[in-house]
């Protein structure tokens, strides 16, 4: 069985003992309900360190008032089994009280500017403050040398990088490639809400991202590429929130149409909101 920690002192002692032995420690934060995408983060973490700690914590501060924190799927037994099979050494399972000793309302909040105002931040106000708030605590609790985040949540990764640099956390941040189903659909806990037909249809998002990259490389201007992608998504039965081209740090639109870029899409299919992205060079 994987070593599971619910007390911070015990977790810290374990990590300290590894470090005394000269071992490098990697960390994979999660909210549970784990799938192969998460397990790939653990496997990648193993390649960057000698020991891997994962956390499962459904973080109340990153849910909006209309997002159902209470109904977020919790699958602790399957998560523990999957983490162990993926090569994780320790599982950190903090309680809400341990994470927020002053209570959720009275907690010290970490607010990351610039990179949080657009895209997911625009449609989920306060979401990234909650993410930065909990990730900063998790970093202080686990004290890893390296932490792994999926590139699927591209803006989240940008927020974490910004925070780590600005607050001088001595932690290397590694972005893990998106894991996709055979049809190209990016793996996500939300895919479980899709019907079989919707799952097939959802693959259009990754095709649309590839078409955006091709169009940029073919010299189409940014505005035309973005408008064309939105139109294509509507025709394929989606309700798009955005289909945009940005520079990799997300702070500016991808003007100039050459160099490193990322295409990002958020779109609803039925009642499920899906996000995906593609990094490319033009
Ligand atoms: O990506 C997630 O699952 C969460 O946002 C994270 C990073 C674990 C913080 O709660």
Set down the secondary structure blueprint.
Layout lengths: L2 E3 L2 H13 L4 E6 L5 H13 L2 E6 L19 H10 L4 E3 L3 H4 L20 H4 L3 H16 L3 E5 L3 H13 L5 E5 L19 H7 L1 H14 L4 H14 L3 E8 L13 E10 L2 E10 L1
Parallel strand pairs: 1-4, 2-3, 2-5, 3-4, 5-6
Antiparallel strand pairs: 7-8, 8-9
Helix pairs in contact: 6-7, 9-10
Largest sheet data: 6 strands, parallel
CATH structural architecture of the largest domain: 3-Layer(aba) Sandwich
- Structural class based on helices, strands and sheet pairing: alpha/beta
Strand order of the largest sheet: 1-4-3-2-5-6
How many helices in DSSP terms? 10
Radius of gyration: 19 Å
Topology pattern, helix = H, strand = E: EHEHEHEHHHEHEHHHEEE
Number of domains: 2
Low-confidence stretches: none
Bound molecules: pantoate
Q: In the CATH hierarchy, what is the class of the largest domain?
A: Alpha Beta
CATH superfamily of the largest domain: HUPs
How many β strands by DSSP? 9
Q: What percent strand?
A: 15-25%
Tell me the quaternary state: single chain
Distance between the termini: 47 Å
Based on Cα principal axes, name the global outline: globular
Could you explain how this protein is built, in words?
The protein has 282 residues and is α/β, with parallel strands linked by helices. It has two domains: 3-176, HUPs (Rossmann fold, 3-Layer(aba) Sandwich); 189-281, Pantoate-beta-alanine ligase, C-terminal domain (Pantoate--beta-alanine Ligase, Chain: A,domain 2), CATH 3.30.1300. The chain has helices at 8-20, 36-48, 76-85, 96-99, 120-123, 127-142, 154-166, 196-202, 204-217, 222-235; strands at 3-5, 25-30, 51-56, 90-92, 146-150, 172-176, 239-246, 260-269, 272-281. Helix 6 (127-142) packs across helix 7 and helix 9 (204-217) packs antiparallel against helix 10.
């Amino acid at each position: 069985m994987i070593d599971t920690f619910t007390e911070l002192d015990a977790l810290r002692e374990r990590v300290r003992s590894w470090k005394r032995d000269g071992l490098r420690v990697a960390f994979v934060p999660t909210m549970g309900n784990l799938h192969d995408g998460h397990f790939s983060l653990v496997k990648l973490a193993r390649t960057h360190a000698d020991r891997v700690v994962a956390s499962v914590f459904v973080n109340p501060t990153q849910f909006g008032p209309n997002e159902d924190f209470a109904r977020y799927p919790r699958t602790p037994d399957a998560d523990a089994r999957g983490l162990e099979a993926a090569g994780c050494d320790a599982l950190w399972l903090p309680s809400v009280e341990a994470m927020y000793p002053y209570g959720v309302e009275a907690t010290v909040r970490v607010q990351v500017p610039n990179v949080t105002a657009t895209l997911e931040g625009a449609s989920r106000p306060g979401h990234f403050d909650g993410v930065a708030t909990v990730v900063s605590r998790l970093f202080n609790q686990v004290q890893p040398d390296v932490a792994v985040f999926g590139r699927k949540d591209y803006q989240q990764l940008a927020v974490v990088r910004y925070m780590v640099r600005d607050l001088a956390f001595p932690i290397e941040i590694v972005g893990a490639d998106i894991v996709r189903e055979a049809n190209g659909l990016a793996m996500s806990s939300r895919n479980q809400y899709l019907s079989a037909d919707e799952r097939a249809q959802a693959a259009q998002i990754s095709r649309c991202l590839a078409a955006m990259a091709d169009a940029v490389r073919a010299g189409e201007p940014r505005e035309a590429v973005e408008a064309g992608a939105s139109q294509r998504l509507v025709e394929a039965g989606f309700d798009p929130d955005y289909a945009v081209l940005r520079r990799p740090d997300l702070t500016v639109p991808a003007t100039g149409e050459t160099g490193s870029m990322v295409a990002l899409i958020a779109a609803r299919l039925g009642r499920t909101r899906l996000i995906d992205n593609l990094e490319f060079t033009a």
